[in-house]
Amino acid sequence: MSEFRFNIRVYIEDTDAGGIVYHANHIKYMERTRTEWLRAAGFDHYWHQSDYNFVVHQIAIKYHRPIMMDDYVTVTAKALSCKTASFVLEQKIYRGEELLVSGEVGIACLDKNLRPRKFPENLRAMLIDSIAMNSQ
């Protein structure tokens, strides 16, 4: 899987009094897209019931243009790098072709005791394949 795309409608509850999406909701849109990306790749959202957890350990966001109430946006997720127990995704939010938000999100894999652990081999293979597809 190369770049994953997920569409989201913006509702009034996502915005401030001026109809602009509150800054923290951009991160929620990215989180929702990461969950759907993993689900589409065959990793459902019940990983927290197993012996590993995914947690955000770093995030960098740049807001280019405001997202407005009732916008229909596309959020992307693309794997950039993968280590033994962490990976980095590039995530962007678009309205049509217009880039609204860009960012990089670092995800770590932890065990039940919240210590770093290796990714399951099938997930690591999917990430490495995805990175290879993105570099072509």
Q: Which stretches of 5+ consecutive residues score pLDDT under 50?
A: none
Provide the succession of SSEs. Answer: EHEEEEH
Strand order of the largest sheet: 1-3-4-5-2
Strand content: 35-45%
- Shape by Cα distribution: globular
Question: What proportion of the residues is helical, as a percent range?
Answer: 10-25%
SSE-based structural type: alpha+beta
Mean pLDDT: 90
Largest sheet: 5 strands, antiparallel
Give the count of helical stretches: 2
Spatial gap, N to C terminus? 13 Å
Strands, total number: 5
Tell me the Rg in angstroms.
15 Å
Distinctive features:
136 residues, alpha+beta
Q: Can you offer a commentary on this structure?
A:
The protein is an alpha+beta fold and 136 residues long. Helices cover 24% and strands 38% of the residues. The chain has 2 helices and 5 strands; from the N terminus they run βαββββα. It has helices at residues 23-40, 121-134, and strands spanning 4-9, 53-63, 72-82, 86-95, 98-110. The protein has a 5-stranded antiparallel sheet.
